[in-house]
Amino acid sequence: MSSDQSGLAVKLVRRDAESCVLTLAGELSLRSAGTVCGAVTKALLEVDRVLVDVSRLRLTWTPAAQVFPSTLAVMGGWPWARLVLFGANAVLATSLNELGVTTAVPLAADEPEARQLVERRPPTVSRYLDLEKALSSAVRARLFVGAACTDWQIDALRDDAVIVSSELVANAVLHARTECRLTVELDARGLTIAVHDHRRGWIKRRPSIDATNLRGLGLFVVDRLSRSWGTAPTADGKKVWALLPMPAPPTQRRNE
Fold first, then answer.
1. pTM for this structure?
2. Do 33 and 64 contact (CB within 8 A), yes or no?
3. What pLDDT shows up at residue 6?
4. Fewest CB atoms within 10 A around its CB: which of 35, 169, 198, 251?
């Protein structure tokens, strides 16, 4: 058992070639979130399946609960990095569910159930890529999103997702003129592609293409390929996002 001044203890219970089990005991707080991140990151670097016993963990600072999904996203997410929590008491389980943590990091009642859940794709999977203010970033975005679609087995969305991500990143590079973070997230609604840049402001929708001014043509393409898209302010800039719905199953399309 290892501990620090944050009021949290971390113990490696067991590890084999494919998985390991950690125990967290004490307070999950602003001070201890970094310790949790470090322990989980180290474990995921060594094996791709990590189970965390949280039966003796107390959440004393609500935002700290996001350390689990955020660490998983940093490590690339499912299927290359898999994380399951187990053993939470009723209070902690309620908090994790209400905060949406369990959609990305499943919560099991015990270790045997956790070992079953670690083999399944969670309801929400995500990953991100930090990109430079460079024209080559659009190419990197296409490769990154294409790989995510392959990993998540959503080949039907790959072509549109690659185009949308490329256009959103190119817009950030050419117009916001800052570095950006590209995030992709798959859940029940579909695939959300978001680009966070460091220039404040809003992007106006254009009803049609102006043949005399092709600026903004990329966002016209985004509008046509996505179910919805928009701009949201952030603490240090803005986020431009687009939602691509999952295609209907073949049987459903035939009945429409």
1. 0.84
2. yes
3. 76
4. 251
